[in-house]
TrEMBL record:
Comp. bias intervals (Polar residues): 288-298
Protein's recorded name: AAA family ATPase
GO molecular function: ATP hydrolysis activity; peptidoglycan binding
A Pfam match: SPOR
Positions with biased composition (Pro residues): 378-388, 398-414
Species per Swiss-Prot/TrEMBL record: Pseudomonas kielensis
Chain spans, region Disordered: 288-322, 372-420
Domain SPOR: 442-518
Signal peptide from the UniProt entry: none
InterPro entries with a match to the protein in the record: AAA_22, ExeA_AAA_ATPase_DNA-bind, P-loop_NTPase, SPOR-like_dom, SPOR-like_sf
UniProt cross-references to SUPFAM superfamilies, sorted A to Z: P-loop containing nucleoside triphosphate hydrolases (SSF52540)
Amino acid sequence: MTSLHADEAFLGHYQLNHDPFAPRVPGFKFFPAQRKPVLGQLHHLARYSQLLLVVTGPLGSGKTLLRQALVASTNKQSVQSVVVSARGAGDAAGVLRQVAQSLDVAQAEVGAILKQVVQLALTGQEVYLLVDDAEQLDESALEALLALAAGAPEGRPHVFLFGEPSLIAGLEQLSTEEERFHVIELQPYAEEETREYLAQRLEGAGRGIELFTANQISEIHESSDGWPGNINQVARDAMIEAMIASRSAVKRPSMGFNMPKKHVLAISAVVLVAVAAAWLLPGRNKTPTTGAPANEQAQLPLGQGANGGAPSVEFAGNTQPMPLPLVGQSQPVMRGPLAEAAGGITEGDDGVPLEGSSSVPPTVTTIAPPSGVAAGPAPTPAAKPVPAPTQVATAKPAPAPTPVAKPAPAPVAKPAPVTKPVEKPATVAKAAPAAGGSWYAGQKPGNYVVQILGTSSEAAAQSFVKEQGGEYRYFKKVLNGKPLYVITYGNFANRDAAVSAIKALPAKVQAGKPWPRSVASVQQELATAR
């Protein structure tokens, strides 16, 4: 599958307007609370500090987004922003050329650029020079930018470098004697900010945070270390893995057509041995007669034509298994592989009758007698006195009545252990609905509740709900193989209403940092718990 087709499948599966986790999404602006003070600090330092300002953070930490916010929040009447990139032009000549073109300066030199900055200052305009990918600047470019930041007595541009932490080492080498720059290090998102970031990304693409469970959001936050670039990659990978898993489940093979190869080979070998044994048995070409004793019938498991032709392998009926007299009971060997091939369907599912019921043929069968003999009457006890030497050839017609009657008790006695495992899942299924699960199942998936907390003790959950009363309730989910009882509050028509309700909760409840989540996400966890 090509990358283009993979993207189309991804968008179609989740019904997205665009890839919510693409590196550059037009119009997307997420600015968490912790970044607002950083933005204010940059504006303050630009006005009152004479130092070059450096913003550092790892790849995908949101440096470019902060640079965009800085440009967007400046007064366009009094500030002219010049944005350049060091990618592919990291030397002094490349950087100064970009600055000169933006300021309409003929010569790409530090002196000529400073003269233009002074002329703009006389008209009441300041110059913000912002450099992206600054970690790619070489020593000559850093020296030129430090000179621009120092400026002239009449005026100076405010220089901002946005780059990875490796940028600092080069600046320190050029500033050994005096302080020439100030560094601001970005911090990763907290888990709540990661949740809000994911929600805004998904909502921009036409969906919502309900695509992720609370456990998945925690895993995404831990795996990404809270850096937005990593969050995009981890979240997208998680959605693609879930899509592939769901599609694989839909394409699961039907029962009985994909039996494991080793079982097919084993059954084939048994059939061949049975056929060979039939050929080697003494008296196979003799004419059958009536009156053979019962103890001679076990020697002839395969039928033979009435005219002494080649022996043939026949079935006792269209729905009965082929007998395997040399192996014993073949049906129990087949049962496990067939269930696995059916994708986990057990006996009794989809209308498949259970062993031992009235609709199941016996698991031990015998071969139907040849057509020429089957039409005749059944043998009578009067034939028993025939001498033993002549009975070897005449024993073939007699097996049908006696062996069919003898194995019959076997399948009746064996279903008891088989049916017990089938009954156990039914008991588990009855216990699966979580506490309060019926209430959540009856609500609109688009509604929202406020998740208060989760506890491994159902008694604690019950005590909390009883103490708070009102609109508090809880449900049971499974986290890392262990039960978790999640307490929620209220039922709201949209996310904004749920957010407003959080502010009105008691201080004790707000201490647990409750957050809004969709009813659809709760219903999904309840379905998974089953």
